[in-house]
């Protein structure tokens, strides 16, 4: 008896939804931070926060692109999803690590 086929479409909608929420939160954080009257990159930690949030957003956009890519052959859907999950988790870690850094510094 063979295992049921992995269907990427079954995972697409929840991942896309979560990416939208996370990217919205990230854009909201950056929008509030950079529009403050006294905003300036005064320290290395400020630069790390900005770069980290930007890199995290790019990784999350990469994961979004991969989840919306319609050209994934069914036989390679599971390895493709696993690689996408790694990009997604790296984006989360970098983005929220940067936000945590901004709260601690």
List the helices and strands and how they pair.
Layout: H1 9-34, H2 44-68, H3 77-104
Helix pairs in contact: 1-2, 1-3, 2-3
Structure description:
The protein has 105 residues and is mainly alpha-helical. It is elongated, with a radius of gyration of 17 Å. The longest helix is centred in the C-terminal third of the chain and has 28 residues, at 77-104. It has helices at residues 9-34, 44-68, 77-104. 75% of the residues lie in helices and 0% in strands. The chain contains 3 helices and no strands. The mean pLDDT is 90. The N and C termini lie far apart (56 Å).
> What does the main sheet amount to?
none
Radius of gyration, CA atoms, in whole angstroms = 17 Å
Write down the overall mean pLDDT. Answer: 90
Number of strands: 0
Tell me what portion of residues adopts beta-strand conformation: under 5%
Q: Supply the number of helical segments.
A: 3
- Binned, the helix content reads over 70%
Low-confidence stretches: none
The termini sit apart by 56 Å
Structural class: mainly alpha
Oligomer: single chain
Order of helices and strands: HHH
Shape: elongated
């Amino acid at each position: 008896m063979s295992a049921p086929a992995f269907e990427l479409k079954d995972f697409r909608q929840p991942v896309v939804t979560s990416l939208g929420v996370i990217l919205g939160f990230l854009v909201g954080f950056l929008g509030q931070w950079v529009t403050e009257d006294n905003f300036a990159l005064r320290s290395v930690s400020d630069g790390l926060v900005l770069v980290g949030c930007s890199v995290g957003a790019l990784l999350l956009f990469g994961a979004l692109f991969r989840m919306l890519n319609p050209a994934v052959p069914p036989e390679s859907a599971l390895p493709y999803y696993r690689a996408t999950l790694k990009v997604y988790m790296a984006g989360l870690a970098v983005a929220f690590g940067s936000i945590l850094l901004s709260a601690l510094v």
